[in-house]
From TrEMBL:
Domain called Acyl-CoA dehydrogenase/oxidase C-terminal: residue spans: 257-401
Sections of the chain in a coiled coil: none
Limits of the Acyl-CoA dehydrogenase/oxidase N-terminal domain: 9-115
Family the UniProt entry places it in: Belongs to the acyl-CoA dehydrogenase family.
Keywords: FAD, Flavoprotein, Oxidoreductase
Official protein name in the record: Acyl-CoA dehydrogenase
Pfam families in alphabetical order: Acyl-CoA_dh_1 (PF00441), Acyl-CoA_dh_M (PF02770), Acyl-CoA_dh_N (PF02771)
Domain Acyl-CoA oxidase/dehydrogenase middle: 126-223
Cofactor names: FAD
């Protein structure tokens, strides 16, 4: 187990500086264009693939960093560059984590490389859980997976929504109901391989922010996948379902395994929010030092300087919560007070507030697309919504405080 540290080691600093260089030289200059185009920035993803940022190796190296700081550090730097483009770059990693967390070694080895493709032919992957009637309430999911024993195939039917890279992905990871009696305990995840018949893209959403990231519905009509596409395998699923049925029979309320997964993945979203908040803060600080009114820089007014002081303080506090939760996740510490949710809640609310303050500090300029803070503000609004809304984070935290099991 690695001791908790608030300092990056030399190797991590090197990686951070390298990522920062990419974010500053490649991502940030392209941000306004792809935001306007509302399209996946394939050339930027390809550039990231060429230098090794868009790759399984890079992601895995950060994911398994025993200090826990690899992923938050990487997310902060990339999202500092631009949230929409960065989500296009890391969206595949989020789907890959679904396979890393639940897949067998063989599934990991087969599917994750296909999710990324290679630098000459980059691919993206999608994680499809949300549905039109199952957002926060994951247990009400309706997409059904039925096992066809004769053919050793699973048949998937349903409609997924809000899928990042949905429809444009090669590999889709789809969560579906295998036993409707068991609520969220009756769900399983499936790989839908590239080009599988019956999977199609529904509407692509026109969004408020992170517009360079593709978000769409995914429609599944009699999608047949081989038995080997069930993540974790049939034997493990049958055992898990049998345990859940037994517990349901006994009326026992059990800890949802999904909680541990979400707690562990939420700090990464918190780190994205820290990146956006820091970007907006830096623009605002620079502006406040150089913009003069009444014969002096506006930062000489306490009303402006105090806002910047609050912004910086919140960003640092958010980062500390994110780093703590990431360290806990990597080192298998139990999230007894939902520390993962805490980090995501605080960091995402901070990003929303700080980007709004940045607009205020830039005055009229802050409200225009000549300056990046209005885009950052639009982008920041996503953090309090996806990977669990702020209300759901509070619900989870509150339940742990009340001693109620997380469902
Ligand atoms: C840009 C974008 C990308 C996304 N990417 C993905 C993806 O790749 N894969 C994927 O599976 N999903 C993805 N999502 C879906 C996202 O996780 C959901 O939007 C989110 O979980 C909220 O669900 P909902 O939109 O249905 O809102 P609802 O659940 O309908 O919530 C509406 C409002 O009610 C509140 N609310 C609901 N229940 C409670 C409660 N019990 N107590 C208090 N308040 C409550 C919510 O906090 C919210 O304010 C994405 C969403 C967006 C917008």
């Amino acid at each position: 187990m690695a001791e908790f540290t608030m300092e990056l080691n030399d190797e991590q600093k090197e990686v951070r500086d390298w990522l920062h260089g990419f974010a500053a030289d490649v991502i940030r200059p392209a941000a306004a264009e792809w935001d306007e185009r509302e399209e996946t920035p394939w050339p930027v993803i390809q550039e990231a693939a060429k230098v090794g940022i868009y790759s399984l190796d890079f992601y895995a190296q950060q994911y398994f960093d025993p200090t826990g700081l690899g992923i938050p550090m990487a997310m902060e730097e990339l999202f500092w560059g631009d949230a929409g483009i960065a989500l296009s770059i890391v969206g595949t990693g989020l789907a890959a984590v679904g396979v890393l967390a639940n897949g067998t070694e063989e599934q990991i080895g087969t599917w994750i490389p296909q999710m990324y493709g290679d630098a000459n032919d980059v691919k993206v992957a999608a994680f499809c859980s949300s549905e039109p009637d199952a957002g926060s309430d994951v247990a009400s999911m309706r997409t059904r997976a039925v096992y066809d024993e004769a053919k050793d195939e699973w048949v998937l039917n349903g409609t997924k929504t809000w899928a990042t890279n949905g429809g444009i992905a090669g590999v889709h990871v789809v969560v579906a109901v295998v036993d409707p009696e068991l609520g969220s305990k009756g769900h399983a995840s499936f790989i839908v391989p590239p080009g599988t018949a019956g999977l199609s893209q529904g509407q692509k959403f026109k969004k408020h922010g992170i517009r360079a990231s593709h978000t769409a519905e995914v429609v599944l009509e009699d999608v047949r996948v081989p038995g080997s596409c069930l993540l974790g395998g049939k034997e493990k699923l049958d055992e898990r379902l049998a345990r859940a049925r037994e517990r349901a029979k006994q009326g026992e309320r059990v800890k949802n395994a999904a909680m541990a997964t979400f707690e562990a993945s939420r700090p990464a979203v918190g780190a994205m929010a820290v990146g956006t908040a820091r970007a907006a803060y830096e623009v605002a600080l620079d502006y406040a030092r150089t913009r003069e009114q009444f014969g002096r820089p506006i930062i000489d007014n306490q009303g402006v300087a105090f806002q910047l002081a609050d912004m910086r303080t919140s960003i640092d506090a958010a980062r500390l919560l994110v780093w703590r939760a990431s360290w806990m996740a990597v080192n298998g510490k139990p999230f007894t007070a939902a520390e993962g949710s805490m980090s995501k809640l605080f960091a995402s609310e901070t990003a929303k507030k700080v980007t709004s303050q940045a607009i205020q500090i830039l005055g009229g300029n802050g409200y225009t697309r000549e300056y990046p803070v209005e885009r950052m503000h639009r982008d920041a609004a996503i953090y309090t919504i996806f990977e669990g809304t702020s209300e759901i984070q509070r619900l989870v935290i509150a339940r742990t405080l009340a001693g109620v099991p997380i469902r």
